[in-house]
Amino acid sequence: MDGVITGGEAQSGTDWKVGVDIGGTFIDFCALEANSGRVASLKVLTTPEDPGAELMTGLALLGEREGFDPTHMTRFVHGTTVGINTIIQRKGAPLALFTNAGFEDVIELARLRMPDMYSLFCARPDPLIARDMVFGIPARMRADGSESQAPDMAAVERAVMAAKANGAQGIIVSFLHAWRNGAQEASVKLAVARLAPDLFVFTSAEVWPVIREYERSSTAILNGYVHPRVSGYLTALEERLKRRGVPARPMLTKSNGGLMNAAEGKRACVNMLLSGTASGVIGASWLARQAGEDKVLTLDIGGTSADFALIIGGEAQFGTGELIGEFPLHIPSVSVSSIGVGGGSIASVDAQGVLRVGPESAGSTPGPACYGRGGTQATVTDAMVVCGWLGHSEMAYGQLRIDTGLAHSAVGELAARLGRPVEQTAQAILDIAVSEMFVEVEKLASRAGVDLREFTLMPFGGGGPMLGAFLARELGMKRVMAPRRPGVVSALGGLVADLRGDFIRTIFSPLTAASLPEIREAFDALAQEGRDWLAAQGHDAAAELTLSCDMRYLGQSYEIEVVLSPQWLADADPEAIEQAFHRTHEQLYDFHDPDGEIELVNVRLSAIGAGPKLSFPETDEIGAAAIPARRLSVYTGASLEVVDLHDRQTLVPGSTFRGPAVVVQEDTTFAIPAGAQARVDRHLNLLLTFAE
User: Is 340 exposed, middle or buried, given 0-12, 13-18 or 19+ CB atoms closer than 10 A?
Assistant: First the structure.
């Protein structure tokens, strides 16, 4: 990503497309002027006390610095952490749950799994709805979708009055077998709307109609829990953009890496809980395809966390069950693993005298000590400053100046408690951060069954390039690729993302030739639902429909997702579907049972409306040694060492140099360890290779 324009008056006839991503410390902007191909990027500190204000600040700065005109914005895509922060901070709406009488403990029982089965002190998180706000309604739907007992409306009325008296703002209705027939839930929703029109109501069947009552209930609860804050935020966002004269319809990044409009985001809030992390992986996938990288491990480090994902064949990987704070999310989402280690993660010494890093973060306010914004506790960023990797240029597009004295003071307090030199203490903080990331990445690789030595590490986010090369070296990875603008890759992801809607229907039948008509019928219904959804998003071009099924061997408790070809259904070919399941099972578990009976649980469909086709310019490589801007002293782990400092603006395609070195730029700093050979490719990516 390059070609950043240098300012000037807004020009008539311009066509601006803007991607925005809000993190824990910064809000990132990636703006493309489509007619000229020029790209502008920016970072602005977040304002947790007034979410959305930083967006207006950023748009104003883009206008001042880059000639950006909001009235010529034809595409605006926004990723936000409002939903996930609401859950993590437990500041959501007070809710009541209406479920079948006798099943009031559904969310407390959950799956009876402990977060850490080997810890004597481990405890499951408290549910988002207290037990005294769960109301049993006499009602029963059979598994085949027929009604055994109609809902007792007198009990519904009593429950509504009790919920209101206890301060509920919304009600979640989740009944048994609503995945098969949601009529009972719908009738109770109508009754609640009549009895208490001031309460919002969501049913499990309308949020995510999947078998298994806990997964369906918990997904609906997450949707309702964040609804008031997300809806209020999006309404304010639309009003602010309207006041700025923005003609573009606001779009939101989703957990599945796609987009939806803001109007849907107010209702389907659960779909955007992982929007920031997902759009980062989508942006990285786009960059990987452009550079011809087939296998990539992404490393997105912000102020509070490090997020990892795999890109295989140039495409992001998807799954279900991603954690939102302490709670699993059961809708499709980009597969991302996270750990509470970021640039703002606080280092501390516990009661036993052991140095620890995170998960607490200094965030943007007060931030790391070196920011000079009131922070006094040592963070990973402060440790980088003390070691000499950071502090040699302005950060965040000139918004931050590093105060090395404050960093030394903060780390020095820990050093005094540990009885070690300050540089060694700072290095220990970095070593712990890298080791914690190492453990999480190894888990990810084991689950996916991949050899990371075959992958290229792509670090991005403000902190990814600071620690990425050190992590790659520890993992035995041979290549690192840092994009031209690593700090705004998540914002780029929103800019290049497609519209994407996911739809599901539970069938629960054996896979036989006799079951194929039912499967085809389900897919036809989902296909129409997907096309209608795309039309509601304003997409009138061709749609791409991808099919898959959740399948398992008879007797297994859980299923795996298998991608299907529409032709197999058209040809009524169950054997092709069976072989696809066997191959997928073999890939995941290293065995399959060719004689085993197969059960089909869910059919899935993704409706995709292609986004704009963007491209950034390429330049021929010249093949010349890079000339450093100056030399500086860095503590590299054992002693101070004099290393080269390079300005990213001066590095052209074909430039080469060796580590250890430091590369500074507007949005981040790239720390390059010894033993790395660096080269700039024709896309302006900075490539590192490590010797065998």
Answer: middle
